[in-house]
Write a structure and sequence with these properties.
With 134 residues, this protein is mostly helical. It has a domain at 8-86. The chain contains six helices and two strands. The chain has helices at 8-18, 35-43, 64-75, 77-84, 89-102, 112-128, and strands at residues 25-27, 47-49. It has a two-stranded parallel sheet with strand order 1-2. Strand 1, helix 2 and strand 2 form a beta-alpha-beta unit. 13% of the residues are buried.
């Protein structure tokens, strides 16, 4: 949950730094295709699964984003998504969609602090139904 004037990519670092567990990959849409996001993901020791923008240019030699651009140019976006595992992102999107269908498509609280509390409750409820992976 963030204010309307804050982009997803701007808060990624705060989200990752607050995690106490290891992260092996971070999957996000094109909004996360920024140097700051890649830096935060690398600092966590994770692999970025972010589709480069259509007009993406190569970054410095050896940057992981460059291989995503190369694969996308060679095989197309659809094949890149399959090969990189990006399609797993849809599982999270589906979970949020299902929860919205059960409750409502919007939060009922009007103030930011109350919305934060409401989202914390929603997250707790979502975790109760999640499978444990080994």
């Amino acid at each position: 949950l963030s204010m309307v004037n804050v982009s997803d990519g701007e808060v990624l670092g705060d989200l990752l730094r607050s995690l106490r567990r290891n992260v092996d990959r971070v999957t996000g849409d094109g909004a996360y295709d920024t140097r700051d996001c890649y830096d935060e993901i690398a600092a966590k020791g994770a692999v970025a699964r972010i589709p480069p923008r259509e007009n993406a240019q190569y970054w410095e030699k050896g940057h992981p984003r460059n291989s995503a651009i190369i694969l996308m140019h060679q095989f197309g976006l659809k094949n890149w998504k399959e090969k990189s595992g990006y399609h797993e992102r849809s599982l999270a999107e589906t979970g949020v969609y299902r929860f919205k269908q059960l409750t409502d498509d919007q939060l009922t609280s009007r103030t930011f602090n109350s919305q934060h509390t409401e989202v914390m409750v929603i997250n707790t409820m979502n975790r109760l139904g999640m499978p444990e992976y080994q």
